[in-house]
Amino acid sequence: MDAQPIRGLKQRDALPDYAVFTAIEGTLLDFDTFDGSAARPLVRTLHAAGVPVIPVTVMTLEEMEQVADDLFMRDPMIIEGGGAIARWRHGAWQVEAVGAASDTLLEAICDIEALTGAHLAVYSALSESESARLSGRRGAMLHASMQRRFSEPFLIERGEIGAVSRAAASLGFSVHRGKRFYYLTRTDCDGRAFHRLREEIRCGTAIGVGGSPIDAGFLSLTDIPIAVPRPDGQPDRQLLADLPNVMIASAPGAAGWAAAVSHVWSALQSAGRSAGVA
User: Fold this and answer.
1) How many domains are contained in the chain?
2) For the chain, what is the mean pLDDT?
3) Is 9 within a domain?
4) Most C-beta atoms within 10 A of its C-beta, which of 31, 78, 169, 195?
């Protein structure tokens, strides 16, 4: 892990309250296998300490339900690139829309193509074999990933990303690059979802973990942002350009996630104890 000072460490008049806002694919879960076992013990430790672990992900609720079950997570989730918030209530996940519905997004994609002459391949319209090849998903997880309600992943088959992004902005939408696809969402829905949940859980210090440019928005709102490297061991260059002071985890995937968050959590606890003694 890069030897950088940890921002966000400060003495507090009251007991410290923390939360971890985290991307999922390639961070809390390994990129290729979607395995989160290396992070599971720390997630349980954080939960036992009363620290919410809040997914901020482009994944759908149907995808995240299995992840949440595997990692024993019942904290709120920001799903589909900020398009909605899911909360565990009365034994089920209840969804609150924050961004635009998929029908509106699909109409916007058609308008963007008309404005730019680009051709955008929408993920939910791909064949099963093509979506599996591009997403790395299989079986139930593949089908769950295609149940888009508040975001639209796409690839550019013809055209330039700059023109596509400008056209989207003129229509009130944003385009962000994730690990595998571009994503179209309503502008700043991820920021609205983040602020809503931070206020709801009364989080004093927000730790953020991400790995791709789409994560820069919410990471910039956290007190201690962490970048998990790509599978090749290198952090995403665009993410570093957007957040030059981000802490870089020592390894890709769930192992890097666990090492970095554990390091920060230990430092926060030490700072809290020092403040208590003082």
Assistant:
1) 2
2) 91
3) no
4) 78
Average pLDDT over residues 184-191: 91
pLDDT at 119: 97
C-alpha 71: how far from chain center: 16
Q: Is residue 207 in a domain?
A: yes
* Residue 70: strand, helix, or coil: helix
Kindly report, residue by residue over 63-122, the tens digit of the pLDDT.
999 999 999 999 999 999 999 999 999 999 999 999 999 999 999 999 999 999 999 999
Residue 276: enclosing H or E segment and its boundaries?
Answer: helix 253-277
Give the long-range contacts of residues 192-196, CB within 8 A, separation 24 or more: 192/82, 192/98, 193/56, 193/78, 193/82, 193/84, 193/85, 193/98, 194/21, 194/56, 194/78, 194/82, 194/218, 194/221, 195/221, 196/85, 196/98
In a domain, 35, yes or no: yes
Distance in angstroms (rounded) separating the CA atoms of residues 63 and 76: 15
Closest CA to 77 of 223, 268, 69, 100: 69
Residue with tokens 């809040």: 54
For residue 270, the enclosing domain spans: 20-98+189-277
- Answer yes or no: is 137 within a domain: yes
CA distances from 225 to 8, 46, 98, 175, 210 (A): 10, 17, 23, 22, 8
Are 210 and 228 spatial neighbours (Cβ–Cβ below 8 Å)? Answer: yes
Q: How far apart are CA 87 and CA 265, in angstroms?
A: 25
